[in-house]
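Consider a typical record:
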Amino acid sequence: GLAFDYLTNDYRIIRLVSVLTDIQEPSSRIEMYSVNQDSWIEAATSSPFPYFTTQPNCTVIVKGIPYWSKNYQEFFDYWNERFQSNVIATVDPHTGLYKEISYPQIVTNENTTVHPFNFMDSLAVLIYEDSNPKMLYVYAHSHDDANWIHLYTCAPTILQTTDMCILRCFQDAGKIIVVGCNYDDCRRSFLYDLQTD
C-alpha cells in the first residue's frame, strides 16, 4: 500500500509478505520502500504477525496510513487447522510497527463480511450480515479511545429478494455508497445509497 510518513515527508510503499515459519504457522513480514531514499528500508520490527495475507494491496488508506483486512470473516484450512481473521491490520509508515484493530463486536459469524473504507478521513467499516433480514451496519473507528462508533443500520430492500455479493464501500460527497453484484450474473453490478435505500 502507498503510505505517507508525515514526520519525514516521505512516501512509503508498504507490503506484507506471507512466509512459512519453522513451526508451520501462518505469518507475514513487513517490508517498506522509502521514496526519499530510493531503497527498501528495514521496518522497526521484523517480527512476523500471525496470519497470511490474502491481498497484495491494502484495503484502504486513511490520512496516509494503510489498512489491510481479509474482508471476509473467512475460514481457510491450513494443515488441517482452521484460522479466522477478525482484525484489521495497520502499519505505521514512520516506524513500521504493526498494529491490530479488532472488528466491532457485532461481527460474530462467517456469514458476516466486513469492508473497511475511508469515511471523512477516519477508518470505517461496512458490515454486511447475510441473515434474515439481510442487514448493513456502518461503524467508524475513534482514534482517541480506539472504540467503534455506530453510524448506520439498515435492511436494504435491494438485498432482501436477491442473492447479492457486497464488493466494497466508499464515501462520495457525504454519501456512503455500496458496490455489489448479483451472484447469478457477476457482469451486473449495482450501486446502493445507504442513507436513502
The mean pLDDT is 79. Helices lie at 157-160. The radius of gyration is 18 Å. The first helix runs from residue 157 to 160.
